Amino acid sequence: MTQPLAVLAAEQKSADVTDWPDRIGWIVGLLLFIALVYWLMRQGWKWRGTLQGDLPALPAAPSAPGPARLELSGRYHGSTTAGQWLDRIVAHGLGTRSRVELTLTDAGLDVVRPGATDFFIPVAQLREARLDKGIAGKVLTEGGLLIVTWGHGDKLIDSGFRSDRAAEQAEWVETLNNMIDMNNTSSTDTTSSTTITTEGTAR
Question: Half-sphere exposure (CA, 13 Å, Cβ side) for 170?
Fold first, then answer.
């Protein structure tokens, strides 16, 4: 009785050994598949960047932007075409997620990103601020993201940020929208004054 059991055990061990080539083949195949998916993603990223090649270079912060109204430390989660949270913008490094330091001044919004491209949004280009839950494939809890809508070239862009202290994002929304309203009012008054002056001169 003992001998057949020993023979059976030896056969099982032998079977295990003969399975290794199949296992190695599966592992190699899986690694090749992962590499292919990664390559296709990179090609898609490059292709999207090429399509967005008409997007102008990002503006840099002015040398004297003025005192800070608000400051924020957190994460930058990406930018998309305004109103289309899955239409990611990758040109000029806008598709790269990173840490971020935001500073809001009277001149605009300074976006500093360690390890990625910094950019500046002039106050005249700010359009709206709101709280939302998703952007560029990143989904958080309701109101978990600070979304800033701004104009660049002929395109409206949504940029998503997440503060390390989420409670302060509501203050950012209120302050940004107040600045936008004041700037729009100021621009309207200036246009009206110019029109009146021109008409008076013509008469």
Answer: 3
